[in-house]
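Issue: copy button drops trailing tokens. Both records pasted manually instead:
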Amino acid sequence: MQYTLKKSLGQHFLKDEQFCRQIVAALQEHPFAQLVEVGPGGGALTKYLIELPGIDFKAVELDTEKVTWLEHTYPSLKGRIIHESILDTRPPFEGAFTVVGNFPYNISSQILFKVLDWKEQVPEVIGMFQKEVAQRVVSQPGNKVYGILSVLVQAYYNVEYLFDVPPEAFNPPPKVMSGVIRLVRRNEVPAMRSGRDFFILVKAAFNQRRKTLRNATRSLFLPDVLQDPIFEKRAEQLQVSDFAALTFKMQGKVKDDITTINE
């Protein structure tokens, strides 16, 4: 039984067993009882994951052809594949579960936002991304790729860049280098007025990242608050904790009219 590769779904399947084993080894560094694989595709990781002892495993796969192929090739997967987009999926388990995957590059940032929605249930993520996205997630203040994704993820997770994966490790080879990163949920989240206010502030600041914070976020604060010297900085100069602290100084009600994310 064969399957086809669909560019429309951003399918680049990992074929190098060395990297498959590295990802599984990284996954096993911390204990977990429930595991969700996002986009199993041709089963490169799946064949290792279903062999992990004592683990309740589920996979989320949108492509009907791949679901059929996986269930045919690995019969133990029957009843354990959620046939829909990860972006539309409800939490696959009750309680805590770890997330792993060679994430489709065309929705990889959206997958991270999904993880943030599930953060109370997801203590750890091991994921493969386009290297540019992976670097953005782990970047620190002062770095030109430090942005919305960096701040929002790092507010809730400690992040670590694990290793590069070259194009030739995939079929078909992507035109870019890939990178595997680890997210481990923070024990203490920076104090903020609300997650919604934090999200609105970070988006506003980075959507006009060349401007000072005073000009980029003027609509969110009263004039006297904007006199604080921190507003003379640009968004990329602020720590995650700085953004969190500023939420307490935002106007009582702010309207989230920022519909695009420009990084």
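Record 2 (pasted manually too):
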Amino acid sequence: MITSLPLDEWPATDPLAWLRACELGAGWRRGSAASRWTPITREDLERRYGYFHESLRERGALDFQAGAGRLITPENVDCYIERVHSGWTSVTLAGSVYKLRTIARILAPASDLEWLTGIAKDLDLVAYPLERFDRVVLSEVLITAGLTLVTEAQASRRRRPIWRAGQIRDGLMVAMLAYCPIRLKNFSELELGHSFAREQDRRTIKLPGPNVKNRRADLRLIRERLNPAIGLYLTWARPRLMRHTDEFMIGDEQSKLLTGPLWVGQYGEALSYGSVERRIMETTKSVIGRALSPHDFRRSGAFTAWYRAGAEPHLASGLLQHDEELVDENYNLASSLEVADLFGGWIDNIAGS
């Protein structure tokens, strides 16, 4: 699986041109070409361009002297497609090349990109979604599987603490995402005290509008059923992953455990978008025999809402924060909060919690 080369490792002309293109307007001055897009759209384009840069780096073709966007050539794009086509679906590949064309037009507006437009159109013609019926799992099954992992890790006292901590984290990821099937971008960036916080006696996920794809603020209460697993992760597993094993900590050491990224790796580093996706896919593969992507959790949540609550036909759209007039009419979504709580309540009743 290819990774995305970070912005600060691109040839210098590309990040400079990209950051300039993202500059917002001020007063009478209009914003730059990419400023009208949401932060999530800009970050997605940046990530996709990072895949292209990584393919260049792997084959030693990352020319640090090239002008902005000048590495987007027929030869380099052909090699990029060859590198990723076996690991990506045809839909992902077509979308990525289309977005590569979009960013090329931003970085090098004077370039003739008809050849790239033709490639994008050809890939789009043959793109087709995979059959995913085998990757739809009722949400209560995923929640039970995730919490079972947490319980097993807690009881496996003969295993290394760092292994147990990782399994507790992975199990909690699966269970929480099944209850709250938000987009991977938001899920991977949950931060203690900010987007993941405590409101009185309940934990919440709070996503401000600018950070959400449809620009509509998303607020969800975490179900009480997850409280023991969250408590275990925050007080025992996450400190172990961050290499803090002292029982008593004060000052800066303690604050590090109460702030920062929710999801951390075995050296205390924030798990990236790709790392969170891999952990979820590997974990579901091990517990239910099928590797589910975070987007499959959204699909499974929508199916579960329809299957378990057919009398509430717009619950699925509300749960996933889709922009539909009917959602607003039926749920008055002041509240993804109300919809998510309704969904979680049904799941808890089914599970007998």
